[in-house]
């Protein structure tokens, strides 16, 4: 009889161990696997309830991790201090404890309220440590309760639960190892991401191009993306934004960097001279052609040809240029032999080509041919965070060339940051060089700039609307009558004049907009406040001590365009 019961017990334990191993190997989610393993134990061994208790803090505080036969409230109450009760003792000593009857044990402390004595029942409490191999340090405890009936032997339960606890302990150790490795990988990933982010300005920097702003970083990324290909690149942007430097960077980042980089300013040459310059000419092709001359296309063979101001070429030459781009061959002026070239083309313009195509001033097929990859260079006023590093770059170069040690004060940097810069980086460079040359002493302060004393002639360009570089300028201004600003003329009365004509008619430079004190006229005061506050209406309203709505009405009244910086 005893032999049969022992065989049944052995078979039961073997099947239970197999099922627990299968459950623990199914997932690394300890909550789910431990709960399923405890359910298997309770069902197979006839346990009333069971729980796994793990340390939750460095000071050794213990808490119920997973359980079967306990409510959520009972699990939340299950917390023991280090060494407290049977749970704390087993975790501290690493030795199992069997409480035959919880009603008679002084050491038994039930924090959950589920394992306590019940009238008419003899309840045992078995606690075994979760240990891995020969390690005497317990990583947790496994506790179970059974009602003593018949021939139940607690020693067998202790032995079997000890085997199960070893499997649970291995799962806990594996989970800790995986979690530690995962945390290490996360920290390493975070470190690499930070290093990568910090390294972006250096990696995406271009020679002779200064730009830390998000707009310029986007330009640098587009340059790095487009440079390795053979696609024609069209650089768009206002005059002075650095299109030539970007074109040069594209060339030196491309596989053609060892070949020539040839540049041509199309706006500086007439149609006949431009044709001869690009295509070359044969001997005797025209008066003065005493010999054969290669054009820029031939000189750039295998390399890059940069056509600056490509929007200014005449309609007749547009057709000739289109044929070269399509066929990659041309004929020299006065010649009949076709010349084939392998040239990567980069074009640049500050013109509104789309509007020119609509007006019939620019061939649509040529526009599509050169507008393969477009890179837009933002004006300096839209990337003001680049002004300080640009100032440092230009001033450092000036100091090296002139053997000086001129510095910029914070007040002067504030003036430079608030300027509208219609001439963009080129104007900023000229301003730095001019001011550094004329300043007395070794520092540039806020009053050293010509604009602070109404001597900056380019200030008249700050409020000129232009469709492109060569279109007529529309100047919005208010006259002054008896020291007060007069209303702007009606829309049909807005004058279309150039800056020189505006200065000649007025007989004086425009009113100063960057001074520390507000002008007298209402319109001038509005423009001054907006420029002082970087064209942010809410800040300007606070500066003028009016509401934003009142400021908005005033801007509409005086027809002041709110510029986006």
UniProtKB/TrEMBL annotation:
Upper taxonomic lineage: Bacteria, Pseudomonadati, Pseudomonadota, Betaproteobacteria, Burkholderiales
**Official protein name in the record:** Nif-specific regulatory protein
Entry keyword set: Activator, ATP-binding, DNA-binding, Nitrogen fixation, Nucleotide-binding, Transcription, Transcription regulation, Two-component regulatory system
Database matches in CDD domains:
AAA
Metal-binding keyword on record: no
Task: Tell me a GO biological process for this protein.
Answer: nitrogen fixation
Assembly mode? Interacts with sigma-54.
Query: What does the record give as the function of this protein?
Result: Required for activation of most nif operons, which are directly involved in nitrogen fixation.
PANTHER family xrefs: PTS-DEPENDENT DIHYDROXYACETONE KINASE OPERON REGULATORY PROTEIN-RELATED, TRANSCRIPTIONAL REGULATORY PROTEIN
The record's section on NCBIfam families has: nifA
Does the record bear Membrane in its keywords?
A: no
Q: Which residues form the Sigma-54 factor interaction domain?
A: 209-437
An MF annotation (GO) of this entry: DNA-binding transcription factor activity
